[in-house]
Amino acid sequence: MIGDNHDGVRLTRRRFLQVVAGTAGALVVGIRLADATDAPVPPALLGDTLYGLGPFVRIDTDGNVIIGARDPDTGTGTTTSLPRIIADELDADWTRVSVVPLGLGVEDDNGKPRWTYGHQTSGLGNSIPAAWGDLREVGALARWLLLQAAARRLGVPADRLRCEAGNVIAPDGRRFSYGSLAEAASKVTPPTSPVPLKTPDRYTLIGHPAGTVDARAVVTGEAIYTLDSYAGDMLTAVLSHCPWPDGSLDHLDTTDTLAVTGVVKVVQLKPEAGQPPGHTVRSPAVAVLADSTWAALQGRAKLKLQWKPGSQSESSAWFEQQAADLVNNKDAAPTTRVRNDGDVDAASKKAAHRVDATYVQPWLAHATSEPMNCVVHIDKDSATLVVPTQSPQDAWHVVQRLTGLSPAQIQISVPRVGGGYGRRFDHDYVAEAVMLAKAAEKPVKLMWTREEDMSQDFYRSACVHKLNATLDGKRQIVSWNQRMASASAFAHRGVPDNRLWTSEVDAHQLPAGLVPNLRSDWYSLPSAMPRGLARGMPHVSNAFAVESFVDEIAHSLKEDPLVTRLRLLGVPRQIPLEEGQTLDTGRLINVLKLVADRIEWKNWLRTVNGLGIACWYVDGAYVAHAVEASLQGDRLNIERAVCAVDVGRVVNPKGLEGQVAGATLDALSTALNLSVTYKDSQVQQRNWKDYPLASMAQLPDTTEVILVPSELEPTGASFLAMPTAAPALANAVFRVSAVRVRRLPLMKELLRML
Amino acid sequence: MAQVQDPILTPHPTNAIVPEKVREGIDLEINGRTYRHTGDAQMPLLWYLRDILRLTGTKYSGEHGEGGHDLVLVDGKLASATHVAVADVAGKPITTVEGLAAADGKLHPLQQAFVDEDAIGCGYCTPGWLMASLDLLNRHSQPSDNEIDQLPNLCRCGCQTRVRLAIKRVASAGSHA
Lengths: 754, 177
Hints:
heterodimer, A: alpha+beta, Aldehyde Oxidoreductase, domain 4, Aldehyde Oxidoreductase, domain 3, 3 domains, five-stranded mixed beta sheet, 18 helices, B: Ubiquitin-like (UB roll), 2 domains, 12% strand, OxRdtase_Mopterin-bd_su_IorB (chain A), TAT_signal (chain A), Molybdopterin cofactor-binding domain-containing protein (chain A), AldOxase/xan_DH_MoCoBD1 (chain A)
C-alpha cells in the first residue's frame, strides 16, 4: 500500500504513549506530546471525574470504554470518526463506547503552554489525517496491554490470543472481557518497542458506517452548545457594535437602558492597538449586561448611542471595479507570480484558437447557525471558559494575554459547535467576553445577536478572475493564463507579504501540471473590510472560475465538455506537484466518469434539462460533481446533484456521505443566493432575509454521493465537496438557458440575463 | 440529665403563622408539565424556555426567528418562540423538542428517522427542523415533495436532503401517530 504505515507504532522523541492506572482498576492509555523527561499524569484523569481526559482510552472494570475526542465538532463528525479510529485498533465493542469531547489540553511548561493532545482544530480537513498518524497508536497500545494481561492470567503466549468486540478470546474459546482485564492490564509494563497496528483486513469499524455519536442528544434537544451553557450567578451580555470597523463612539446615554429591570451594567469595549485581527475586539462596542438574555436585549434596544465613522469609506462595488481593472490592465505587475510553467507569452502567440473570460465572485459571510458567543468565569487564579471554537489553542492565547494567567490555570471546554466554516478561528468574541467578565467581576455569557453576527464578520473577499487559454489545431490547451485579484484573508495576520496569495489561490490547482505553459498571477487589493478564513478557501472561488472556463473552452470547440476535460487530463498518470503533492490523473478521471455515468451524461446533448460537470483536486483528494438543472419560466430547479469523492481510505462512510452531501448543498446555496455588500464601509446585510441561505425548494431533492473505495492513506474531506458544486451548476444552467453565469450569486445574474 | 428541647420543635404561637401569598403569574403548560411564570409577561417564550426552564433545545439564531431554529408547537400549531410572549401562550399546551420523546425515553418516530438518516450537520438547527417536520406530518401524513419544500428552516451544513429522507421514512412507515 502506497504511503500507508502498518509496520508499527511510531514513537518519536516528541511523543510517547502513556499508561496509567485510573480509579477503580481502570486502564487508561494516551499519547503525550512532551519532552520525555517529565510527564505528570493529569490528576483529573485519575479521579472519578472525566474532566481532563486525554486523547485517551479509559477501560473501566465494568467493560465500559470511554474515548476522548480531541477536535472540536462543528458538524464535521470528528467526535464520531476520531474515536472510531481508536476503538478499531482497540477492537472495542462500539456499543460500549462513550465519547467525551476533550476541550483544550494544555499544561504548564515553564510558563509556556504545552498542548497535551496535539492536533486540535476543526474544519481544515486535517482531523482524520492527523488522527491516522497518532490516534491509532493509542488503541493499539491498549489492546496490547489487555492481551498481555490475558496471557498472564491464562499462562499462554499473547500471540495465541485474539481480540474481538471488547473481549480477549483464548485458543480454547474462553472469552475474557476487557473490563475483567483492565486492572491487570494497567499494571503491565508498557512495551519498549513499537506494538503492531492492525492490518486493514482486520478493521471492524474503520470503513464501516456509523451515525453521529451524539445524534440522540441532538434530536432530543439535550445536546448542549456553548449558548446553552449557564454558569452560576452569571450575567448575560449583548452588544451593539460600531458599524465601521475603525469608527468610534460619539455619544452614549445609558439612562433608559439602566432603568430596565435586570440590567446591571453597561460596558464599553474597544479594539486593543497592535493586536492582529481575531485576537481582540473587532470593532468598538457597547455591552449591556443583565441577569437574563431578555433583559439584556431590552436594555440594548434602549441604548441611545451614536457612532462616528472612521477614515474608511469603501464600497463593495468600488472593490469589484478595482479588482476588474487590475486583471484587465495588461501592464499591471502581479503582486505574486504564483506559478509560471513554460512560456505562456510565446505559446499564446502561436495559437490556433483563443478563449477569454472574466468571472466575478462576491464578498461572503460565514452565517453560522449558532451566533458568536462565549461563557467566561474568571477568578483570581483561574479562568474557565466554554467556547464554540474551531481552534481552542488560538482561543487560549487570547485568554492568556488578557488575564495574565499561567497555562494550566486556563480551562477551555468546547461542546458541540453550531457551525464553523472558518469563522471560529478568529476569537474576537472571546476577547470581548473575557473583557466583560473582568469588568463585571462575575461570570458572563456573551451572546451576539444575528444582526451583530451578520454585520461584524470576518468576510471572504470578493474576487475577479480573468482567464485566457490558447489551443492548438488538435484541440490541446497549450497555454493557460490566470489573473486573479482579491484582498488576502491573511493580511495583517503575521503572514509575510510574499505568502499573502496562499489564502486566495492554490499553486497546484487545476490545470497545473496538465498544460505545458501555465501562469497564475495574483493581484493584491487593499481593503479595510475585515477578512478571515472561509470554508474551502482558496479552492471554492478558483474552481468556480477554472471549471466554468473549461466548459467555455468546450463550448468554443463545439464539443462535449466531458470530452474536453478527459482530453485535458490525458492518460492516467502521476504528476508530481511541488511540496510533495502528486496529482493522480487516473483518480480524477475516475471520479469524473463516476458522476457522468450516474447522471447519464450520454444524454448531455439530447436532454431538455441541462447537465453540467466539474472536477477538482484538493490536497490529495479528488472530487467531481454532475448537476442536472431545468428551467420553468424564471424558476431554476436543480433536479439532481451527484458527487463522487476519492479521499483514500474512508474512516466512516456514513459520516463522509453526510459531509459530501452537506458541502454540496452549502456550495449550491452560496452560489445561488449569497453575497455581502457594503457601502461607506458598512455591511448592508443584517439578518437571514438579507443573506438567504437556500430554501429546500431551491435545493435538489436528493444528493447522490459516490465514495470511491481506496486503500490509500486517508485525506481530509470536510470541505472537499464545496469547490465543484457551483461550477457544475453554472455549466448545467448554461446548457438549459444559454446564459453563461460569470458573476455570482447565480440567481441574480441568471434573472438579469434571461 | 435534663432534656433540652430543640428550639426548632418549639411550636409557634398560632397567630404568628402567616401563610405565604399565592404567587400570581402566568400558568404555562409545557411538554405536559405546568409552570407558573411570575416575571415579565412580555418575555418571549424563547427566553422563558431557555433562561428560566433551561429547556435549551429551542435555539436562538436571530431576532426574527427567520431560520426556524426557535420553532415550537403551541396548541398543536407551529410557532416561533421568539415571536410569542409568555402572556400569549398562557394555558395553551406547548410542545418543545424536549417533549417529543416518550416518557420512557423512546424516541418519537421522526426523531428516530433523523437519527437513522443521520440528518444532522452541526445539529444546531435540528430541533427546528424536527418541529417543522412534525407540524407538516400532522397536517399531511404523506407529504409531497412540494409540501416538504415549504419547510421554513435554514441550514448551512446542508442537511436538507437527509431531512427530506427522514420525513419520507416516517411517512412511508405510517409510524407517525
